[in-house]
Amino acid sequence: MTENFFTTLRRLLVDDYHGLRERLARRYGSADFASELLHEAWLKLDRAQAGGSAMAVRNPRAYLYRIAINLAADRGRSERAQVTVAELDALHRRAQDDLNPGRIAEARMEVQALSVAINQLPPRRRAIFIAARLEELPYKEIAVRHGITVRVVDRELSLALDYLSDVLNKNRHIGGGSGGREPSST
């Protein structure tokens, strides 16, 4: 009887996999997470069968769904338990620092200085910087776009980053403004 019970449950899991996955995906907002839960449910059924435990179940489909929900709850408890008190204190201190009005004003000034500095870059260097850092394009694609080698892309990006780093460092020491040296257009 035990083997029949688990064979029936596994067959139902296979036959109604998409329906169960859809319900779980709606509940948790992720089809991938729902699939993981159903795979864990399959493994749980294997372990339970090996243990020889069986019981009478009125609604096998609801039973499988409940197994998956319990697995999700177990996973959530496990993940929450991994945050230590020290980590919580550090997060709290960081959040307080991030909400400091002086820090917010300073960050806005840095963003403004960075924007000015990016606009001061030579056109090709600026285009390469934007493609690499903002559009996240591969160097090879940037090289083809500009008709240059990957090595030139790397050099131009390095020069742009050095210049922008200098501007931000000078801005921090001066306490404002967009300082920095004029970028060369090599």
Please specify the SSE layout and strand pairing:
Blueprint: H1 2-15, H2 17-28, H3 31-51, H4 60-81, H5 85-98, H6 101-120, H7 123-134, H8 139-146, H9 150-174
Helix pairs in contact: 1-3, 2-3, 3-4, 6-9, 7-9, 8-9
Give descriptors for this structure.
elongated, 2 domains, 9 helices, Arc Repressor Mutant, subunit A, WH-like_DNA-bd_sf, mainly alpha, sigma factor activity, RNA polymerase subunit sigma-24, 186 residues
Helix and strand composition category:
mainly alpha
Helix content: over 70%
Query: How many domain modules?
Result: 2
Q: Give the DSSP E fraction (strand runs of 2 or more residues).
A: under 5%
How many DSSP E strands? 0
User: Residue-averaged pLDDT, rounded?
Assistant: 81
- CA gyration radius, whole angstroms: 28 Å
Calculate the terminal CA-CA distance, rounded to whole Å. Answer: 80 Å
What general form does the structure show? elongated
Largest sheet: none
- Helix segment tally: 9
SSE arrangement, N to C: HHHHHHHHH
Low-confidence stretches: 176-182
